[in-house]
Amino acid sequence: MASKFWNQGGDSETEEEESDYEQEDNGIAAAEEDKAGGSRYLHSESDSDDSDGEKRVVRSAKDKRFEEMSATVDQMKNAMKINDWVSLQESFDKINKQLEKVMRVTESEKVPNLYIRALVMLEDFLNQAMANKEAKKKMSSSNAKALNSMKQKLKKNNKQYEDLINKSRENPVSEGDDDDEEEEEDDDEFEDDVVQHEKKEPVEDEPKDDEKEDWVQQLNKKDRLMEKQFKDPSQITWETVDKKFKEIVAARGRKGTGRIELVEQLTFLTRVAKTPAQKLEILFSVISVQFDVNPGLSGHMPINVWKKCVQNMLLVLDILTQHQNILVDDTVEPDENETQKGADFKGTIRIWGNLAAFLERIDVEFFKSLQCIDPHTREYIERLRDEPLFFVLAQNVQEYLEQIGDYKSAAKVALRRVELVYYKPQEVYDAMGKLAEQAENEDSGETESGEEPKMDTSRALPAFVVTPELVSRKPTFPQNSRTLMDILVSLIYKYGDERTKARAMLCDIYHHAILDEFSTSRDLVLMSHLQDSVQHMDISTQILFNRAMAQLGLCAFRAGLITEGHGCLSELYLGGRVKELLAQGVSQSRYHEKTPEQERLERRRQMPYHMHINLELLEAVHLICAMLLEVPNMAANSHDARRKVISKTLRRLLEVSERQTFTGPPENVRDHVMAATRALSKGDFQKAFDVIKSLDVWRLFRDRENVLEMLRVKIKEEALRTYLFTYSSSYDSLNLDQLATMFDLSDAQTHSIVSKMMITEELHASWDQPSRCMIFHDVEHTRLQALAFQLTEKLSVLAESNERATEARIGGGGLDTLPPRRRDGQDYAAAASAGGSKWQDNLSYSQGRLGSSGGRSGYNTGRAMGPGQTGYSRDRGGQSRGAGGYSTGYQSTRYQDTAYGGTGRSYQTGSIARGSHMDGSTRMVSLNRGVRA
Amino acid sequence: MVAATARSFLQAATTEEEFSPALVTGQLLGLDVGSVLEVTNCFPFPIREEDEEIEAEGANYQLEMMRCLREVNVDNNTVGWYQSTLLGSFQTVELIETFMNYQENIRRCVCIIYDPSKSNQGVLALKALKLSDSFMDLYRNNNFTGEKLRERNLSWVDIFEEIPIKVSNSALVSAFMTELESDSPVNQCDYDRLQLSTNLFMERNVEFLIDCMDDLSMEQQKFQFYYRNLSRQQAQQQAWLQKRRTENMARKAAGEEPLPEEDPSNPIFKPLPEPSRLDSFLITNQISNYCNQINGYALSLKATS
């Protein structure tokens, strides 16, 4: 009591403002500090000396709002007195804004009387002013303008409150009573407070955030207020709810409508909805309004809203499973009163909505949030924990869709699930399962503590439509991620559309690759022919394809399939834009700036951090594969380095590193591989392996030991091959044992490697069984021979492109368009060895090729015959004709594809290019034979 | 027809062989008499390095040299220049440029190409060349597009014209030569010709051929690229035209003036520059040259064996 005394003594008039609660609080605090009473006293002394600002804590937000409002009303009154419409207009705008705030604070649907009274007053004054035409004329132009706009605004505004205004007009006396009835006792107090402090200046606006913080507590209060509005459960009819619902929905998207507020209002409505159908309808709007909470494409939905959204979806599913007769459809515009039909209605009820689309949107939001959140924070991990929540939702939606027979949408939903699972190795998958279980347990614990208030409210106001939790809130995971994938993927293959199927296939490939099933995975790629069609798909699918290929390459490497691994990975590294191709970060390009638009698009494509494929590992694997293939290859073709390049990337790196004057100890992945390459080309397998082993990316492999062992063996083998290629010419014979000890390989291994080299004619030698020696035959080509081969190769390339030009020409327009002069131009006819004339006659495509090759042979003979410029000129004629064909027709874009597909810059798969290359090479071989023969 | 004294050639040949791997050039002096261009003297340029200063010096040297020659009463009309070459790899843009330079001052000028490596084989490897008139016309206007070439009916063969050379000696020199001639049927030079490393010449030729092939494919690629772009541009133009036409139809229907069907400001109507064919012509010439050499060599081998 003593403390109270102090307080009273200390604070003068402010004391009265304080609510009892505050006083008590102070009291307790003071009591606790009883011993330090003196200081406390001093403290409050100083308090009282301070300005009013110090006391701001005491009033509740509600109070403040009312105060502000009444202050504004005062201003309005003053403005009316001096007939100042400009300031009146300002005040009116202000009061409207304040009204909003008041409404939010009091959570009431009921407009405060103060406001209504002000409106009435304003309207009366306005009418008066309008009637007085003389005065109107006298007004200044700005004033008159303000008057007019005021008139319109008021008209519009007052419509909303028409009933209330009329009511207040009818019985202006009973205002006070009205108040008492409508508002609680403390409201009454507020009213008093407002009166008392009318003259005080309106306190500065509090930031909105404060309100949000109080949200949870206010929810309680607000519900009570809402409850008051729909006071009597028996009075609420379908119509009232429907009307309210329409009103709220109409406000959606309008300026000045708080998005969060909208969500709250609708959420409340779901509780009072009369029929399940109506509840469903409202729930759908809640969900779509929740999607709107965050505008714009860049940001993501606030996480709590997202969670609520998921809960709402679950609720929707509950209702749908409970009432099987309700159909969700987004194609038909439903009947106005469709939702009126009650729970006992037996026929089908159609409601607008699209579950799969909602689910996809939720997934997108989840994905976006993961993109935005910094992956190195705790928040990110927290966010990842929400995955099971989404998973269960997707599972339920899918089940429901399957149940109603909408397999197409079900496939879409299944794809979303697949995309959650596919990148997870078994361990991570297990962890997710565990997490889901844990979350379930925690959830049940949480409902007791955290969700207490909610329970309360539901107890206070039992929802009209009670929906039991029918669908499971816990995701079920099959033991094995593979089984889950199989189930989902087979569903998709059966019912999905093209894109869904393709994506599912890619996810499937990826997943197989993760599980070390290289052959299955490879077969899937080859059977699906995705590499041919993926160029025509959207970018995100292309990214997925690239990722699948990367994973496939890693898988091949783990399995020891070096060539395959290199095949998968080399394309990714060809352009030096791996990051971009895998959507794991943006690479800066020196040559052309990106527009902000492009950058934004790119950022939206990025993969969340937890889905990243480790780039260092990928690079290491790629370069090592390249090294193992390229080093023996370089040794084999030492006299013509440029002829057969397996990995351009490695060659380039090697060139760069050779140009360095001083090579320091290796630092990054590249340096390591370069060092290893140098060692390997000298045949020093041990050093090569040691360097490679010192890379720390190997810890990322599950069976690190096995992989390294495999690598060791491979390096030894390739070292042996390199050695033989390089030094075989220096030997006459070489003992097997010697070789085996040199490279620390078993006799059998050495024997098999050497034999293989002999068979493929890489090594010109034979075994001498009794002495276990290989005898080398000196069948090396002379330099002239080698050059001749090289020349033939070059020639065939040239002939190839000539043919291509010719074919394009023939495909384009035939010979008719050719000017006659050119046909017999120059010494064409004279040149006509067999090939030339034949060519002229042949118009058809295949024969055209035949003809042109004939022409080439003619060219050769023509040259041999001596003056022979004729052959040339004919050849050139063909070329320029081809050129003509390009410009006239050029329908056969096929050549464009084959010729330039490989160099196509964006997200190329290069498979087509590769195909054509292979095609070309086979043709080349046959040509070579022809020449040799 | 070029008539030259053996002295002038020998002079040129000795300087060239002295600096053998490096290429040498020099001035040809003589008289233009009727249909015959007489080359009577020559002097080499100092070996040039790529430097402006030295180049200026070279010009001074040339003038000085001419002045000196005039003082000793020798023909000092410039009629062309000579240059050495390696296996006949002389058909370059630079050569053509030099030709054009000379041509500006001297109407009838000639370039004599001497190939030391070939004369090692025992053949007098001399060639007198001039540019054909039609080619020069084209070159001056610098348009080697397919259209123009077709119009002129010019092919790669027609770039250079080879002029027959007639080597003549003064009576005095002839007499001296007869005096010198030894009785034995073979001399050192013939022995030299018996060397077995015949491959070297072939190898070099094939190597050069390979390089040419590379160059030619590059040229071809250029053209492919050009035609691809061209066809793309044409497609764009067509699309644009189509659009414009439908637009015009609509305008016609609405009773408005139709828009013009040409829009020069539109970038898609900007003509793409066609790559010059000069390079590919020269390369083709070069290739034919190599082929001739190989053929000639092979034939001579066959004949001797």
From TrEMBL, chain A:
Q: Where is the PCI domain?
A: 609-781
For this UniProt record, the keywords arranged alphabetically read as follows: Cytoplasm, Initiation factor, Protein biosynthesis
Q: Does the keyword Cytoplasm apply?
A: yes
Q: Give the transmembrane region(s).
A: none
Pfam families xref list = eIF-3c_N, EIF3CL_C, PCI
Q: Which GO terms describe its molecular function?
A: RNA binding; translation initiation factor activity; translation initiation factor binding
Give a GO biological-process term: formation of cytoplasmic translation initiation complex
Record field: compositional bias (Acidic residues): 12-25, 175-193, 203-213, 439-450
Asked if the record carries the keyword Lipoprotein, the reply is no
Q: Which domain of life is it from?
A: Eukaryota
Q: What ranges does the record give for the region Disordered, renumbered to this chain?
A: 1-63, 162-214, 437-456, 809-896
Which GO cellular component does the record give, naming just one? eukaryotic translation initiation factor 3 complex
Name the InterPro entries on file.
EIF3C (IPR027516), EIF3C_N_dom (IPR008905), EIF3CL_C (IPR058999), PCI_dom (IPR000717), WH_DNA-bd_sf (IPR036390)
Where are the compositionally biased (Basic and acidic residues) regions? 32-46, 53-63, 162-172
Compartments in which it is found: Cytoplasm
> What do we know about how this protein assembles, alone or with others?
Component of the eukaryotic translation initiation factor 3 (eIF-3) complex.
What protein family does this chain belong to?
Belongs to the eIF-3 subunit C family.
Q: What does this protein do?
A: Component of the eukaryotic translation initiation factor 3 (eIF-3) complex, which is involved in protein synthesis of a specialized repertoire of mRNAs and, together with other initiation factors, stimulates binding of mRNA and methionyl-tRNAi to the 40S ribosome. The eIF-3 complex specifically targets and initiates translation of a subset of mRNAs involved in cell proliferation.
PANTHER family given in the database record: EUKARYOTIC TRANSLATION INITATION FACTOR 3, SUBUNIT 8 EIF3S8 -RELATED, EUKARYOTIC TRANSLATION INITIATION FACTOR 3 SUBUNIT C-RELATED
| Name of the protein in its database record | Eukaryotic translation initiation factor 3 subunit C
Specify the species: Escallonia herrerae
From TrEMBL, chain B:
Q: Which family does it belong to?
A: Belongs to the eIF-3 subunit H family.
Q: How does it assemble?
A: Component of the eukaryotic translation initiation factor 3 (eIF-3) complex.
**Cross-referenced Gene3D superfamilies, in alphabetical order?**
Cytidine Deaminase, domain 2 (3.40.140.10)
Nuclease keyword on record: no
Query: Which organism encodes this protein?
Result: Escallonia herrerae
Q: Where is the MPN domain?
A: 1-135
Alphabetical keyword list? Cytoplasm, Initiation factor, Protein biosynthesis
Gene Ontology molecular function: any one? metallopeptidase activity
Q: Decide whether keyword Cytoplasm is in the record.
A: yes
- Recorded protein name is Eukaryotic translation initiation factor 3 subunit H
Predominant location category = cytoplasm
The organism's taxonomic lineage, starting at the top: Eukaryota, Viridiplantae, Streptophyta, Embryophyta, Tracheophyta
User: Which residues are in coiled coils?
Assistant: none
Give start-end positions of Basic and acidic residues composition bias: 244-255
